[in-house]
Amino acid sequence: MTRRTLTAGLERFPIAGTFRIARGARTEAAVVVCTVSEGPFSGKGECVPYPRYGETVESVIAQIESLSDGIAGGMTREELLETFPAGAARNAVDCALWDLEAKKAGRRVHELAGLAAPQPLVTTQTISLATPEEMEQQARLHSSRPVLKFKVGMPDGDAERIEAVRRGAPNSQLILDANEGWTEDNIEDNLRIAEKFGVALIEQPLPAGKDAILREVARTIPLCADESLHTREDLPKLAGLYDAVNIKLDKTGGLTEALLLKAEAERMGFSIMVGCMVGTSLAMAPAILAAQGAQFVDLDGPLLLARDREPGLVYEGAKVYPPAPKLWG
Questions:
Q1: Integer Cα distance of 329 and 323 in angstroms
Q2: Residue extents of the structural domains in the chain
Q3: 234: which of 124, 203, 261, 309 lies 20 to 30 Å off by Cα?
């Protein structure tokens, strides 16, 4: 048997302008790429280390490299899932193993996973946090898009931001992402404003672990767990608090857990959103499989970059197409 090798490295991609959320701003996407090779075949996976979850580029690369002996010894995706913690590092390795399996078998990942062939998806276009005037401008620029997602979560001015985005995009479905930035004191007022302007979904209004009040808060807009959800283990405590869950491969620790999480969440009655960190097409490609049939798709990471990798995913208007084998899977 040919021994497998594992490598991990940092790649940087500039963001078009500045991407800002309630927790801060970035001008580049620092991504970690894992490659698992066996003979003439190589599989790749990309992850985005996220400081919110205690991750850095250095810590994630070290985590990936700690798996070198296990991967060389034939560690499977199932063994990886059982023995390694969820997070960005496991995501990159898991997706690289899927890609390697597909290339060795001469088949596509969806076939190996027993899934139907993926179809093009309608994805959101994200508007980052800014002044109401700037966000209205951005909304107007993308007002032909069927679905817009926009960032809020500041102590002041969110009502004005909500109204401004709706004014700029009167016909788009709107998803609002507070990134844990609202409080028990302002959530009800913000919900009323969001209802007034026809917001379709609100992501993570309160900090993870401090959201028990959601059980009592009256609302007509469904709430979606993001930072509160990582793996299947989190689902029971979210029942009654949230109506939807946002599945991101960097949180689940790969496509393997993402597919299991999606199935369990659907069984429990949650609506499904599949989202992403700001990364390249290599990170989005496996998420497209998880996003098939989801009610909300937020896989616009490459659209926020000044340049993507080549070859990348094909984006046409609001649609994103499944990856070509040369990219992944």
A1: 7
A2: 5-107, 121-320
A3: 124
- CA 197, chain centre distance (Å): 25
From 149, 248, 251, 262, the catalytic residue: 248
Token couple for 146:
């069927």
Indicate if the alpha-carbon torsion angle 69, 231, 272, 33 is positive or negative. Answer: negative
- Please give the Cα distance from 255 to 155 (Å, whole number): 36
Contact 241, 248 (CB under 8 A): no
Domains 5-107 and 121-320 share a fold: no
- Collapsing DSSP to helix, strand or coil, 193 comes out as helix
Burial 218-248 (b: 16+ CB within 10 A, else e): ebebbbbbbbbbbbbebbeebeebbbbbbbb
Q: Is the peptide bond before 170 cis (omega within 30 degrees of 0)?
A: no
CATH fold for domain 5-107: Enolase-like; domain 1 (3.30.390)
User: Does pLDDT of 105 surpass 80?
Assistant: yes
Retrieve residue 235's tokens: 């689902």
What percent of the chain clears pLDDT 70, i.e. is strictly above it?
100
Please say if 210 is a catalytic residue: no
Note whether 290 and 255 are within 8 A (CB): yes
- Taken in order 128, 134, 136, 137, the sign of the CA dihedral is negative
Task: List, in sequence order, every residue forming a beta bridge with 9; answer none if it has no partner.
Answer: 33
| Superfamily of 121-320 according to CATH | Enolase-like C-terminal domain (3.20.20.120)
In the chain, the amino acid numbered 15 is I
Helix (H), strand (E) counts: the chain? 12, 14
Quick one: 82 exposed, middle or buried, by C-beta within 10 A (0-12, 13-18, 19+)? exposed
Helix, strand, or coil (residue 10): strand
User: Which phi and psi angles does 141 have, rounded to 5°?
Assistant: -60, -35
With cut-offs at 50, 70 and 90, classify the pLDDT of residue 20.
confident
Is 104 catalytic? The answer is: no
pLDDT, tens digit, for every residue of 130-174? 999 999 999 999 999 999 999 999 999 999 999 999 999 999 999
Decide: 86 and 251 in contact? Cβ < 8 Å: yes
